[in-house]
Amino acid sequence: MSDTEKKTKKEYVGDVVSQLKEIRHYAETNTERLSAHWLAFDTGEYADKAFAGKVSELLNMQGKLHDELESLLQDMEIFINQED
């Protein structure tokens, strides 16, 4: 597509969906790492309840972000798949 051609809204939303799916993939990987750190602070070799609590809060926020991201992806995919 040349610089002078403008994408349709569906094409643009499709690009955003692709980017959000990539973000989701990396977020899942980061959540797994964060969970391992939480376990080390909660009951593992680096037991520290204060740090475990803070990491747990981050995991909860990450979970909420994941849920919102999934909802947005679903809405965008529905939009893309609607017939004109």
Fold and architecture overview:
The protein has 84 residues and is mainly alpha-helical. The protein has helices at 9-42, 49-81. Helix 1 packs antiparallel against helix 2. The mean pLDDT is 94.
H/E element sequence: HH
Q: Tell me the radius of gyration.
A: 19 Å
- Helix content range: over 70%
The number of E-state strands comes to 0
- Describe the biggest sheet? none
SSE inventory with pairings:
Layout: H1 9-42, H2 49-81
Helix pairs in contact: 1-2
Brief rundown of the structure:
By secondary structure, the protein is mainly alpha-helical.
Name a few traits of the molecule.
mainly alpha; 84 residues; single chain
